[in-house]
Design brief:
- The chain is mainly beta.
- The chain starts with 9 loop residues before the first strand and ends in a 5-residue tail after the last strand.
- It binds zinc ion.
- Zinc ion (ZN) binds next to loops.
Length: 222
């Protein structure tokens, strides 16, 4: 399920964001979360800008939010499943909760840094997730504040055939029905490289003049 919360199901806030004067965790740049399901989801659509190990943060992932340019830090992980420059969305499983770095038990320290990405220049992650910034037990299903944005659909690329080529109803030369198109037929590549079969890479295409959609071997364009 899509979520703005990096966890799914029942979870606990064990240390609040920027709670001053507390013996438990003092001034705090993020929020500490614990959950039996230790899969960590990205909290925004964005790109991974950093992964690594830090003696305080342990294994960490930083995702830059496409929407507002803020940096989401996921810390103390036992496992990192993404790499730098990888695009993630709110349904991406980016890591596994752990207790690496300066940590006394398995939890996620989740922090949102403002566009400076500097330590202590933070936003309140509880506000972002729409949960109370308060120690307690919550369930992610009650706090699905936003639907995930639709993946960006890129404009189909117009191409011209270089030779006689079949448009097939399946991305294979075997058992698919085919209609022959001739050189100079123009078509839109809807999705390049949708399948690899029979030694070819296949594209999903739409013939421009009649709107017919199907699959074509991708090496036959001018
Ligand atoms: Zn923390």
């Amino acid at each position: 399920m899509a979520t703005n919360i990096p966890l799914t199901g029942e979870f606990k806030v064990t240390c609040e964001y920027k709670r001053k004067g507390s013996w438990a965790c003092g001034w705090h740049t993020g929020i500490d979360l614990v959950c039996d399901n230790d899969t960590i989801y990205a909290t925004c659509d964005g790109v991974v800008t950093r992964t690594g190990y830090d003696k305080s943060y342990g294994n960490f992932i930083v995702v830059k939010n496409d929407a507002d340019g803020k940096y989401h830090w996921y810390c103390h992980l036992s496992k990192i499943n993404v790499s730098v420059n990888q695009k993630v969305s709110r349904v991406s499983k980016i890591g596994i909760m752990g207790s690496t770095g300066n940590s006394t038990g398995k939890h996620l320290h989740f922090e949102i840094r403002n566009t400076s990405n500097k330590y202590a220049d933070n936003s309140n992650p509880a506000d972002y997730m729409g949960i109370p910034n308060k120690v307690g037990t919550y369930n992610s299903s009650n706090y699905q504040v936003k639907e995930p944005s639709k993946p960006a659909t890129s404009t189909p690329v117009l191409k011209t055939l270089a030779r006689n080529t079949n448009l097939r109803n399946k991305p294979t030369t075997k058992g698919s029905t085919a209609v022959l198109y001739i050189p100079n037929t123009t078509l839109y590549v809807l999705e390049a490289g949708v399948a690899k079969a029979d030694g070819y890479t296949w594209d999903k295409v739409r013939i421009r003049v009649n709107g017919k959609e199907g699959y074509m071997i991708n090496q036959n364009y001018k």
